[in-house]
Structure formats: C-alpha cells, structure tokens
Design goal:
Length: about 600
C-alpha cells in the first residue's frame, strides 16, 4: 500500500482485509500517519479474475450496472507510485487536523491538559509543528474526532465553526485552537475545545446534547474518491471517533459455488427434448418417462422438476432469478450417498452420511447429514455504510433500497476473494419444523420475539430489515451452539467456522457450517471427522445450550425489555450463544436458545425434545 506523497509503501494489509475491515473509504493507521483507503479507481496493478456468474449477476443488478467483474485486490508493490509497474492501493491522508503530543509553552498545570489543535497547513516538513511562543518543534498525532453521516460521507470537523459558528474573525486571524483534557478518563465531558481569543470554549459533551446542530449539515464529501468528490446530501453531520467500531461497516455478498440442481435438470431435459417438447403438464411427463431412454435420462429427477425445466426452456425470459440461498439449498438437499463431484479439480465434493451412522432419538427432527469435503466460497465487497450496518436478509440478499457508499467513481469491478474449505450440512425435516411451529408455546415465544423486533425497528426506522420468524431464529441459535461444540472437537478456532442458515419454507430448512482459507486448496479434514460422529456432537451442543452461566438472568430475558435493550435477542448472551461476528451471518442478532432446548425458564418451546 502506498501514500501519495511518499516513494515507498507505508504499510501493508492482507488482500482479504481489503474487502472487509479496510475497504475503500475505511480509515486506518499506518506506521507514520492516519489515512483513508482510496476508491477502486486508484487500486493499481494486476488483478486476478474470479469466475462466479451467479454472484456477478446479483451484484450488477444491485448496483444498477450492465455487468461487473469479480477481481482480487492487487498485490503490494514497492517503489515510486508514479511507476506504472508498481502495484498497490493508494491512500489519502486523513484527517487533516492534528493535536500536538508535547504540551505548549505555558504553565505546568496547563501543560498537563492542553494540546494545540492545528490544521495540516500549519505543519512543517516531517509532521511537526512549531510552537509560536517557544519556537519549539512539537510532534503531532491525528485528532481522533471527525464528522460523518450514515451514508458514508466523511470529513474533518470545522473546529472554528464548532466554537464561533458563523463568526469568521478568529479563523481569518489564524488564532490557535486548543484541546484541553480536564480529567483522566477521556470522556467527552472532560474534553474541551477553546480558542486562544479567550471568548469561546465548548465541551465535546455538548454534541450529545445538541447532536446534529453542532456540526451542521453534511456536504456530501467523498474524499476516498478524490479531494473534490462531493454529492448532494441532506443528512446532518454526526460525531465519529476514528477508531470506533461504527466507523465502517463493509457490505459484502457471498455465494457458495455449487453445481446447481437446475443445471442437472436442464441438461437432462435437453437430452430428451424430442420426447418432452409437446408435454403440457406433469402427467405428460409421467407418460414419457415410461420410455427407456427418457427414464434413464430423468433418473433421480421428479416429474415436477422436469415440468419446471420444460417451462424454463420454453419461456427463459419469465424465469425468476433465485435468491442466493435458494440455489444453494436446492443443490445441498439433492446430494445423496452416490451423487457427487469426484473430479480432483472440482470445486464441490459432497456425500450424504448414511442414516444408520447417526440415527438417535434426539436426531428425529433431522432428515439428512451431508459431509462436504470440498467447497468454494466467493465473497465480494459492494459498498459500505457508517454508524449503522446493513446486513443481508435471511435469504442472503442485500437490500436494493439501502443507500450504500460507492466504491469507485465508475464501478466496473468489485474486489473479491475466494475461500476453499470443507463443511457439514444438516437438513431438517420440513414436517418436523412445521409441526413444531404449530405448538402453542412456540407461537407464544414468537410473539415475544416479534415484540422485541418491533421495539428495535422503532429505533431504526430507516432499516428495511424484516422479522426472521421462529424457524430461522431456532436454526440460527442451534448453529451457534454447534459452532462452539465443533470448535472444541475439530481443532479449528470458533472464529474460523462460518454459518449459512437456510429457512426457506418452499424448499426446506438446514444449516451449513464450513471453514475455508483463501491461500490453500482446502483444510485439514477436521470438520469431516466431526461430521462422522455428528450425533454425539449434536447431543453435546444440546447439553451446552440447556444451562448458561448467566442463568436464570439469561433465560428469563424478554426481548422487548427497555432496560437491557437487547431487542433482537431472547435467551442469548456471551455465556451461551454469542460467537465471533466473523462467524455469524446476522452479527449476533436473532438468537434464542429457548427455541432449541429446554432452558431454566421452562417455556416448553424447544425443538429438541427427545433426549
């Protein structure tokens, strides 16, 4: 990674970090300065193309562009940034306001709490500031406060406006500003900004009182795309701490590269199209299946799937685009003990584990266990937000109505990575899920969870998030228990195991737990070995969820409680269900272990009843 004013790279990041924590528009600290990662227009060097048509089409539709390429971030280079042979990611210095590390030349008491607040234009070479009173060279560090809005726009705080509003007298005279720390905690109430004119000072705590009025309206600045890049914005500026967790929320989309079930159906229909061309319904398909050639070609495919394939071939323009998870789930539930990709170079290889190897009383609600020895995940960055995260919905789709900050002035490609690894897919019985949903205790708990969601939605009126429903929350909570249990047995840390929850009423229910790496062709097989003894692993996960170290407080928590303000959580806390956010597709929201197992509260809404 290189800066604009230096000949040598000032820091390096892993390629995977450039589509998560440190994408375009993110702030980061390099060894010698604080910077803002530039937009994709200034990512220079060779990039490898990643082929994943389904994800490319989804992103192009999301960004309203004809097409988009998936490419890896460029590798780090070394040398003059103007040399076309150098690769890397350019950055902009940000913020442009600094505070001195050494105290100004005044009294001893004052020196312990005051620092000059200066603009970059006041710096001399070497990032130092000359005290106008003592002529001493003072080192500086970037100020930790900036302004931003929830649409991603960001900029320096106008400190003269903060103190004097529309009076520009001190600004025009260049009067020095000071940041006083009148305490040791670092709290906003102890940080004061004052002008050397002696007539104006304000506490940073006033931001919490006056909120938007303090910094004025956002000017739409997008400095990561260039110094003069602005757009219209009606939002009010908010205070943002550079290193805060809400400073940057990457918005990414990922898919599992699987041989879609529809592809197999399409190929089978094409092979015997001469026989199926005149079919008018499923009954005609059944008649044609009696012929030897047709029966062999359509082996393992239902009449309904064949009829859908015929309709798709006749009217391709009317075929609706499937959600991200729909295509994946259709493929996963079609895997049997015999069907799989045995090619060494293949991206997907899976086998169903015979039921005789895991059939136990507590497994009655589970229909199939699939061991995936080889899979490929492609993840792409499509934008980002600040202050509020915009997570994918329960079907893996990103909301097209969300206003996300742009990655480039003209988006033709998006940074992507591919991970290869292994996983376990557990398919739940639709009949068991539907029967469980009809139980009065489950319906009652769903009402409580819905009230919590409504309370959260009232505080996030701009969010388009929808209530996930008890089936999704149960599967999600069970996945978290299983992640923790598997991590104790397979040797992988829990943070390296990821989840995908499938709660699609028209297709089926299941969870996929997988692990992968971008710099290898697979993993060590620990997940597969755990999968071979899945019955005992699930039993351990159920036992783990029965009692939390924070019970009975945890199990008695009501989502709508205004005191705890954990509106999206039922019986869930750091002592039982919460895992690393890198593992969770919902950022540790929508969890309740009382839907999975019997808790100390005894609500009788659990899915796993037979132990």
């Amino acid at each position: 990674m290189t800066t604009q004013k230096r000949k040598r790279p000032q820091g390096q990041l892993r390629q995977g970090q450039l589509i998560t924590t440190f994408g375009p528009g993110a702030m980061t600290d390099l060894p010698e300065r604080s910077v803002l990662i530039a937009g994709l227009d200034e990512w220079v060097g060779d990039r490898d193309l990643i082929s994943e048509p389904r994800l490319s089409a989804k992103i192009a539709n999301l960004l309203h562009v004809p097409s988009v390429r998936l490419e890896t971030p460029p590798s780090a280079g070394d040398g003059d940034i103007n040399d076309p042979r150098v690769t890397g990611v350019r950055v902009y210095r940000f913020p442009e306001w600094f505070v001195t590390q050494d105290p100004p030349g005044n009294s001893q008491d004052e020196s312990r709490r005051s620092r000059y607040l200066i603009n970059v234009r006041a710096l001399s070479r070497g990032n130092v500031f000359e005290d106008p009173e003592t002529r001493k060279k003072l080192k500086v560090v970037p100020v930790r406060f900036v302004r931003a809005c929830r649409y991603g726009h960001i900029g320096d705080i106008d400190w003269y406006f903060f103190l004097h509003e529309n009076d520009n007298t001190c600004r025009n005279q260049g009067r020095p500003l000071f940041m006083d720390e009148r305490g040791t905690s670092g709290d906003l109430s102890e940080i004061w900004i004052r002008c050397s004119c002696g007539k104006a000072e304000r506490s940073m705590a006033q931001i919490a009182i006056q909120k938007a009025e303090v910094f004025g309206r956002c000017d739409g600045a997008r400095p990561w795309l260039g110094p003069a890049m602005k757009e219209s914005c009606q939002e009010m500026n908010r205070l943002l701490v550079r290193t805060a967790s809400n400073a940057y929320f990457p918005q990414s989309m990922s898919v599992i590269s699987l041989p879609e079930r529809s592809e197999s159906v399409r190929n089978a229909v094409s092979a015997v199209w001469d026989f199926l061309e005149t079919a008018e319904d499923e009954a005609d398909v059944a008649k044609e299946r009696k012929k030897t050639k047709v029966r062999e070609a359509l082996s393992g495919i239902t009449d309904a799937e064949v009829w859908a394939g015929i309709q798709a071939r006749r009217n391709p323009q009317q075929v609706q685009d499937k959600s991200v998870k729909s295509a994946e789930l259709e493929t996963l539930i079609s895997v049997s003990e015999e069907i799989g990709d045995d090619r060494p170079e293949g991206i997907f290889y899976a086998r169903a584990l015979p039921r005789t190897e895991w059939n136990q009383p507590w497994m009655n609600g589970i229909e199939k266990v699939i061991l995936i020895q080889r899979l490929r995940e492609v993840m792409a960055l499509v934008g980002f937000t600040r202050f509020e995260a915009a997570a994918p919905d329960t079907e893996g789709e990103l909301d097209m109505g969300v206003r996300r900050a742009e990655l480039a002035r003209d988006v033709t490609w998006v940074p992507s990575i591919e991970n290869r690894g292994e996983g376990i897919f557990i398919q739940f019985s639709r009949q068991s899920i539907e029967a469980w949903l009809q139980r009065p205790a489950v319906a009652q708990r769903a009402v409580q969870l819905r009230r919590g969601f409504d309370a959260w939605k009232a505080e996030h009126s701009s969010s388009s998030r929808q209530f996930a429903g008890p089936a999704y929350i149960m599967l999600h909570s069970f996945a978290h228990l299983l992640i923790t249990t598997i991590a104790l047995e397979c040797g992988y840390p829990a943070s390296s195991i990821r989840e995908r929850i499938y709660a699609l009423q028209n297709i089926g229910y299941g969870i996929l737990l997988y692990t992968g790496s971008s710099d290898s062709e697979g993993t060590l097989g620990g997940m597969i070995e755990v999968g071979r003894r899945i019955a005992s692993t699930i039993r351990s996960a159920i036992d783990l969820g029965t009692l939390c170290s924070n019970d009975p407080v945890c199990s008695q928590h009501l989502p709508e409680s205004p005191h705890e303000r954990r509106f999206l959580l039922g019986a869930a806390c750091h002592g039982c269900l919460l895992v690393a956010e890198t593992s969770c597709e919902q950022q540790n929201d929508l969890l309740d272990r009382s839907l999975v197992v019997r808790t100390a509260q005894g609500q009788q809404a659990e899915f796993f009843m037979e132990l």
